[in-house]
Specification:
Two copies of one chain form a homodimer.
Chain A lengths: L11 H14 L4 H9 L5 H7 L5 H13 L3 E6 L5 E6 L1 H22 L2
Helix pairs in contact in A: 2-5
Chain A binds a DNA duplex (30 and 30 nucleotides) through helix 4.
Chain lengths: 113, 113
DNA sequence: TCAACCGGGCACCATTTTGTACCCGCTTTT
DNA sequence: AAAAGCGGGTACAAAATGGTGCCCGGTTGA
């Protein structure tokens, strides 16, 4: 695109970025999962109980996706019973803060209605 | 919840907030629409051309939803031919900035793969 | 006169996403 | 011994979302 000329359309990079955004934040329950992790809830069973309404299947899918996007890590806790802990990565914490801002926008919106 | 005690689950308010978030940002094409508006694209026809792949139906639905959440305004441009202009509100601009941050997170993620 | 543009609607269909219910192996509790 | 808990998987059904194609009335252009 020539300097000074207005863009004619969203570039492929931008479109890809928004699709990734949709892929991560756009799915139902994603924001809640990230928020729960940000609050220190780290084990699958805990997350399931902490987020009423979420199904085990969807929780697992969200965790897998967040792992794939490197927004969380997964570690196995030693012991006879298989315990696992998920945690936000640095990028994941940034996402959590962004989600917090979105939440505040919603709050402001609510209060103005 | 007693002070000092850990929350047992996401509160109803938080859940509602995340559902609203999903309702606004979570839908396909929403981020792209907000981004386009942030870049000064304001008329429906322009938006449709600016965001390749989006359908007229979905564009209209997104605009309606953004209006409902008071993230954008709609004004009719005087003239024989019905022209309309959408624009981000203050809150809408904040959302656009947040979306920009999410986009940057995605960029960082891409570069680390 | 017809086509294109303006902005917008809607029925129907296709696709995608989410939820349900059941399954697994293991350990611990009842 | 059975049930419950741990973490996780999958087939199928249900629900939700998005896209197509056509429709509208108006103005302008071919």
């Amino acid at each position: 695109m020539h300097q000074g000329m207005k863009k004619k359309f969203l570039s492929l990079n931008e479109r890809a970025a928004y699709h990734s955004l949709e892929d991560v934040v756009g799915c139902k329950w994603s924001a809640g999962v990230v928020a729960a992790l940000a609050e220190g809830v780290s084990r699958p069973g805990e997350l399931e109980r902490y987020i009423p309404g979420i199904s085990k299947k969807i929780l697992n899918e969200r965790l897998r996706k967040l792992l794939d996007y490197r927004l969380i890590t997964r570690s196995e806790i030693p012991g006879r019973v298989p315990h696992v802990a998920y945690a936000l990565t640095g990028t994941g914490r940034k996402l959590a803060r962004v989600i917090g801002q979105l939440k505040q926008l919603d709050q402001a919106h609510r209060e103005s209605r």
